[in-house]
């Protein structure tokens, strides 16, 4: 949506002041065909130029997708003109000694686009306007109507959101005018087209909205935007973990260009690039977007306080270059890691609970203890852990729960529902079954369009997980990845009733009487299998989908267990033998039987570096007793 608010523009020539736009307000939809009519000198061209950022306004505001342009700097206007706007003029403005293909190619502003890609896109745009066959001709070998169509192709090649045309048919006869109008009407199906014309007949025939201008004032508007439409659209910005295969493919394409040395370093590196790009796009674009609509919608966006935080703004600055022969270093890594701070969440929680008045301002206060229930599938494909998801581990990457990168590359399918049902239940239609009623029930949340990801099919046992292993193997060997997709649709009944098993993380450890330590049994398949078989059920009892009418929805696609499962996981851990034993004896590590002090000394012994027990190392991350100690909440 593009909004013009109380816009004024005057021209001063010598002593004379000419008012071109006089308090003009106008709202334009994302796709419609608007014709601006009016006598010569009424301000049509001025209005179009202001909309396109070719001319500055004196006062008022031009608001693009809810964001004011009052603070726009030159580079913001450049970017807006280059990426959002396509222009068409009465006098085509083609470069005479260049072929029409070259004329269109020249407008491609996207940097980093290869020559072949530029040619491909330019040819595609020329085909779109019906001139695919003429691309080698010079402009003077074309008719007026054809030249105007080249100008339209040139305007479209960057795929702008808005097409502005100033008397595009002014120099054409009526027959070729019709061709151009047909084309613009076509374009207006998916873009905003604003056309200035002095031909009311053509305007009425083709445009779906006619705005009349006189002496810089709008005197009529055939289809104004209603107040209701004017509200800014807001999208769900909650969870944005990338679809796993998408992320994998993106990184993979990145890798193919280089000869990867080891999968670990290069894959991690390419994720870093994606991660940083995401951070940049979020912090530059979306922040401004949020701030413009925060008054209306802040209640829908959770304000979340985490145990660690990163000062993103510190990463955005560019150092000042002192002189031309110097290459300055951007302290990206240093900033990223040194700016991480810790929050005292324990005291914050106590404070919030003491000061009940916070409830006046918040719809709900939710606590997340970072608990990840150990969930297994037990189906025709055997017993396998599905939460926390181990896919990244198979690629040799750790899944430390607190790292920002891992949250972006999150491959987990299971999430906890918030403790307050009022936060989400009215945003979803229950398609089948019902919301979970106890900790043994879970719900499948579909995407807005009612789908689930292929990745989830492996979790649900609807697709053979061995296939995923093959994909990962092919990926790690830099082979091409072929996926046989199989069944593409499922009924709600195929999903209802799928049952997982939940086990207690502490039961991975068994007391060994001989050595008086707790032994880690998580690599003992038989032990795990019997654990899983005796585990508690977690059954899909409902399938829900975001309502058509909601813009913001709390729960992204995935499987959601009730909050009570997370809290009972904490209780079970607290009551488990190993945690009790550890809490009773804080100096001795109950897993190794050694004093914590001894261990820290030992880690300085270089030779121990060469005797690392990989399994012990891996398992250390599955159940960290010191963490349990910290996160036991007061319930
Ligand atoms: P239209 O396109 O409807 O014919 P314009 O937007 O070109 O009208 O012009 C609106 C008014 O502003 C006219 O009175 C015109 O003389 C004046 N104007 C437009 N551009 C300039 C300029 N660059 N310098 C001075 N006056 C201008
Ligand atoms: Mg004009």
Count of DSSP H/I helices: 25
Number of self-contained structural domains = 3
Report the mean per-residue pLDDT as an integer.
Answer: 76
Radius of gyration: 31 Å
Relative strand content? 15-25%
Low-pLDDT ranges:
232-301, 310-317, 398-408, 600-614, 616-635
The end-to-end span amounts to 48 Å
Largest sheet: 8 strands, mixed
The class by helix and strand makeup works out as: alpha/beta
Under the CATH scheme, which class of the largest domain? Answer: Alpha Beta
What secondary-structure arrangement, pairings included, does this model have?
Layout: E1 2-13, E2 16-28, E3 32-37, H1 44-51, E4 59-64, E5 67-68, H2 74-83, E6 85-88, H3 100-105, H4 115-128, H5 144-156, E7 162-166, H6 174-187, E8 192-196, H7 200-206, E9 209-214, E10 217-221, H8 227-230, H9 244-256, H10 263-297, E11 308-310, H11 312-316, H12 332-338, E12 340-342, H13 345-354, H14 358-361, E13 374-379, E14 382-387, H15 391-394, H16 404-408, E15 414-416, E16 428-433, E17 441-445, H17 454-460, H18 465-476, H19 492-495, E18 499-503, E19 509-512, E20 517-520, H20 525-533, E21 536-546, E22 558-561, H21 563-575, H22 577-584, H23 596-602, H24 614-620, H25 625-631
Bound molecules: adenosine-5'-diphosphate and magnesium ion.
Adenosine-5'-diphosphate binds next to strand 1, strand 2 and helix 1.
């Amino acid at each position: 949506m593009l909004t013009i608010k109380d816009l004024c523009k005057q021209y001063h020539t010598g002593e004379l002041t000419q008012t071109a736009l006089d308090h003009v307000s106008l709202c334009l939809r994302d796709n419609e065909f608007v014709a601006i009519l009016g006598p010569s000198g009424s301000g049509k061209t001025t209005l179009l130029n202001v909309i396109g950022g070719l001319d500055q306004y004196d006062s008022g505001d031009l608001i693009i997708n809810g964001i004011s342009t009052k603070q726009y700097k030159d580079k913001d206007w450049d970017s807006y003109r280059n990426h959002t706007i396509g222009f068409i003029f009465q006098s085509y403005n083609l470069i005479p000694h260049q072929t029409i293909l070259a004329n269109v190619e020249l407008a491609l502003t996207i940097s980093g686009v290869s020559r072949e890609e530029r040619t491909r896109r330019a040819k595609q745009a020329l085909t779109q306007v019906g001139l695919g066959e003429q691309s080698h001709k010079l402009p003077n070998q074309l008719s007026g109507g054809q030249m105007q169509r080249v100008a339209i192709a040139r305007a479209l090649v960057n795929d702008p959101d808005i097409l502005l045309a100033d008397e595009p048919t002014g120099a054409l006869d009526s027959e070729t005018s019709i061709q151009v109008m047909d084309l613009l009407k076509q374009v207006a199906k998916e873009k905003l087209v604003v056309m200035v014309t002095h031909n009311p007949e053509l305007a009425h025939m083709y445009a779906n909205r006619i705005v009349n201008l006189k002496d810089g004032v709008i005197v009529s508007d055939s289809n104004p935007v209603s107040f209701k439409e004017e509200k800014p659209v807001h999208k769900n910005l909650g969870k944005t973990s990338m679809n796993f295969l998408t992320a994998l493919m993106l990184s993979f394409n990145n890798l193919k260009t280089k000869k990867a040395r080891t999968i670990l370093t290069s894959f991690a590196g390419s994720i870093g690039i994606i991660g940083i790009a995401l951070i940049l796009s979020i912090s530059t674009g979306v922040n401004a977007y949020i701030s413009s609509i925060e008054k209306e919608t802040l209640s829908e966006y959770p304000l979340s306080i985490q145990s660690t935080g990163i000062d993103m703004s510190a990463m955005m600055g560019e150092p000042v270059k002192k002189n031309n022969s110097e290459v300055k270093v951007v302290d990206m890594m240093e900033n990223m890691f040194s700016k991480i701070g810790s929050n005292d969440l324990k005291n914050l929680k106590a404070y919030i609970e003491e000061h009940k008045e916070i409830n006046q301002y918040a719809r709900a206060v939710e606590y997340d203890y970072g608990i990840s229930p150990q969930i297994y599938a037990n189906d025709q494909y055997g017993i396998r852990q599905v939460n926390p998801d181990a896919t990244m581990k198979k690629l040799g990457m750790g899944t430390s729960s607190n790292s920002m990168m891992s949250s972006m590359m999150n491959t987990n399918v299971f999430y906890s529902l918030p403790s307050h049902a009022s936060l989400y239940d009215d945003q979803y239609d229950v398609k089948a079954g019902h919301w979970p009623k106890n900790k043994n029930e879970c719900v499948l949340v579909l995407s807005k369009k009612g789908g689930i990801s292929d990745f989830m099919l492996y979790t649900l046992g609807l697709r053979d997980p061995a296939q995923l292993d093959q994909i990962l193997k092919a990926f790690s060997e830099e082979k091409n990845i072929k996926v046989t997709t199989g069944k593409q649709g499922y009924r709600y009944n195929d999903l209802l009733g799928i049952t997982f098993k939940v086990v207690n993380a502490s039961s991975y450890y068994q007391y060994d009487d001989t050595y008086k330590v707790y032994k880690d049994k998580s690599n003992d398949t038989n032990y795990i299998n019997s654990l899983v078989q005796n585990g508690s059920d977690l059954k899909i009892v409902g399938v829900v989908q975001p309502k058509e009418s909601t813009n913001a929805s709390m729960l992204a696609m995935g499987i959601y267990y009730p909050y009570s499962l997370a809290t009972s996981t904490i209780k079970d851990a607290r009551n488990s033998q190993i945690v009790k034993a550890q809490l009773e004896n804080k100096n001795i590590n109950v897993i190794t039987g050694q004093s914590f002090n001894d261990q820290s000394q030992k880690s300085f012994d270089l030779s121990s570096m060469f005797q690392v027990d990989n399994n012990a190392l891996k398992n250390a991350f599955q159940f960290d007793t010191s963490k349990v100690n910290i996160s036991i909440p007061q319930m």
